[in-house]
């Protein structure tokens, strides 16, 4: 297993659907598997983006906080960054950008990460408000999300692409988080326009899926009654 | 990632469905990830079972062969064995046995392995006949399988259980291979009765999915047209 060709994932998107939102991994342990990533805290406590080994949380007030090693999470992705330049782009919307990336990488059947640094406009993000036990479902919790917008912002986008076959474990397609260079804006990206940016990418041949086997609520849950694909794409779209 | 809590998988069941049967990993490389496993060769060349680091192939003539480090595979599972005793059972059919295992382990939401050593009856196995390029689909190739039966046989069953969420990447539920103690019978288990045996199990918290990213046919294939779940359960059931 190559250090730079492995994407580590703790938890699954599917376990968020019925509200299995307990934090089952600490940030300190997550950071043993990489220096770049995304995730969410216990009870969907904000949106995480990890850059150069530093874990930032965008909370539901829109504040960007550094989180401690003891911060716990039900779901996160992380890897060791070794991006290669892919393309420089100007004036392109999200859908067109994602199409171009698939076309340039020919990598739709594996996992990869995209990093974009540059100038963005019409950026719309969300951050979910932390809920407390007994946790609600993903659909209910996502109704308590805050939406933030910025017309013009310099920043960094971190995206993970997952093949359709792994929808449910991950979000099939692109899962994009954002952090502004001024650390005053960020979150889970709902929409954006790239004015000008450097697009780099990193291909993975290994997807290391870690499951919260010590959590009895996870282990005893009956997933057959959850509408996983539908609820994920409504909440994460 | 714990040595004894990780299940390594090369390839996916889904890539077999449209006939992406090229060997993309050598046995020598697979054995760097464990000493116990199952798999198939290029072109679905027989059924593999790895015990104590020794890779056996049951070919379509029913012969059991040791394969070399250069043997190539499109799909395999492997792990480092550290089984714990689960239960001793007598006179139980496959369906009832699998129900008891789920009930005893409470592990339906993670990956685990089962090893059973003992006396089996009414054992039915299959081994697929190797096909050559251009490869046919899994459904077409599986029509060329040989079926073998034994009324009474002492042997070892190796099984991997995968959660429903990962159906398509793996076979959801149990995937059972068998090798007789006399090395004169084995293959992919289609049916069996356990007369008396020791059932042991090993829980995994990590599923390490390795994909054949250097294989251009895999990377360029359009999986959206394949009926993956249906064809897997017809061929692997």
From TrEMBL, chains A, B:
For this protein, the record's Pfam families field holds: AAL_decarboxy
Cite the InterPro entries for this sequence.
Acetolactate_a_deCO2ase
Any one GO biological process = acetoin biosynthetic process
According to its UniProt record, the EC number is 4.1.1.5
Q: What class of enzyme is it?
A: lyase
Keyword Lyase on this protein? yes
Spell out the reaction equation it catalyses: (2S)-2-acetolactate + H(+) = (R)-acetoin + CO2
Q: Name one GO molecular function term.
A: acetolactate decarboxylase activity
Going by the UniProt record, its keywords in alphabetical order are: Acetoin biosynthesis, Decarboxylase, Lyase
Q: Does the keyword Lyase apply?
A: yes
**Domain of life, source organism:** Bacteria
The pathway noted for it is: Polyol metabolism; (R,R)-butane-2,3-diol biosynthesis; (R,R)-butane-2,3-diol from pyruvate: step 2/3
Q: Which residues cross the membrane?
A: none
Q: Which family does it belong to?
A: Belongs to the alpha-acetolactate decarboxylase family.
Name it.
Answer: Alpha-acetolactate decarboxylase
Species of origin reads Lentilactobacillus otakiensis DSM 19908 = JCM 15040
Q: Tell me the classification of the organism that encodes this protein.
A: Bacteria, Bacillati, Bacillota, Bacilli, Lactobacillales
């Amino acid at each position: 297993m190559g250090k730079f060709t492995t994407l580590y994932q703790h938890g699954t998107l599917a376990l968020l659907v019925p509200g299995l939102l307990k934090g089952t991994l600490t940030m300190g342990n997550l950071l043993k598997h990489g220096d770049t990533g995304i995730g969410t805290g216990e009870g969907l406590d904000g949106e995480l983006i990890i850059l150069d080994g530093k874990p930032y949380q965008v909370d539901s007030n829109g504040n960007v906080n550094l989180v401690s090693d003891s911060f716990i999470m039900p779901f996160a992705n992380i890897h060791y960054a070794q991006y290669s330049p892919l393309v420089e782009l100007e004036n392109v919307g999200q859908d067109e950008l994602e199409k171009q990336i698939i076309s340039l990488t020919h990598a739709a059947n594996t996992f990869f990460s995209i990093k974009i640094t540059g100038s963005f406009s019409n950026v719309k993000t969300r951050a979910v408000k932390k809920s407390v036990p007994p946790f609600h479902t993903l659909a209910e919790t996502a109704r308590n999300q805050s939406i933030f917008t910025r017309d013009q912002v310099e920043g960094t986008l971190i995206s993970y692409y997952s093949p359709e076959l792994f929808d449910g474990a991950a979000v099939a397609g692109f899962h994009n988080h954002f952090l502004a260079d001024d650390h005053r804006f960020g979150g889970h990206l709902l929409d954006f326009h790239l004015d000008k940016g450097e697009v780099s990418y990193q291909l993975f041949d290994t997807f290391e899926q870690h499951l919260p086997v010590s959590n009895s609520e996870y282990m005893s849950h009956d997933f057959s009654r959850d509408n996983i694909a539908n609820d994920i794409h409504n909440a994460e779209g």
